[in-house]
Amino acid sequence: MPDTSSCACSAASTLIFACSGGADVGALADQAARRLTRDGKGKMFCLAGIGGRVSGILKSTEAAGKVLVIDGCSLDCARKTLEQAGFTDMGHVRLSDRGFVKGKTEVDEASVAAAAGQAESLL
């Protein structure tokens, strides 16, 4: 069985966390993070691992050069999850402050591209 507690030190120097919540803007945050990863801007990383205090994920996040957090709405679940784990040095974008309305946002290619572009501006 592999050692799951070790640091995933091969992680990208920029880690991207998205709220990935149940609302449309959460889905948009998730898709924007995936797009930034595909575009080589960083690596989407496991927010649930932060919340679950998985040691390897925590160590990799501590070692990251940059951390970008994409939240869909004003609840800021992703940012708060990282803060509860002791992380405070991060770029943060809240999509609902950037023209995406919770409950009224289509998660389509145009919205994903726009959200990814706005998040990328923090890198």
Protein model, in words:
The chain contains 5 helices and 4 strands; from the N terminus they run βαβααβαβα. It has 123 residues and is an alpha/beta fold. The protein has one domain (14-120). β3, α4 (77-84) and β4 form a beta-alpha-beta unit. It is globular, with a radius of gyration of 14 Å. The model is unreliable at 1-9 (pLDDT under 50).
How are the elements arranged and paired?
Layout: E1 14-18, H1 24-38, E2 43-44, H2 47-51, H3 55-63, E3 66-71, H4 77-84, E4 91-94, H5 109-120
Parallel strand pairs: 1-2, 1-3, 3-4
Helix pairs in contact: 1-5
Structure summarized in a few sentences:
This protein is α/β, with parallel strands linked by helices. It has 5 helices and 4 strands. The chain has a 4-stranded parallel sheet with strand order 2-1-3-4, sandwiched between helices.
The poorly predicted ranges are 1-9
State the end-to-end distance: 37 Å
User: Into how many domains do the coordinates divide?
Assistant: 1
Order of helices and strands: EHEHHEHEH
Using the CA coordinates, give the radius of gyration: 14 Å
The total of beta strands comes to 4
> What overall form do the CA principal axes indicate?
globular
| Number of distinct helices | 5
The helicity comes to 25-40%
Main sheet specs: 4 strands, parallel
- The overall average pLDDT, rounded, is 91
Q: Which range does the strand content fall in?
A: 5-15%
- Secondary-structure-based class equals alpha/beta
- Main-sheet strand order equals 2-1-3-4
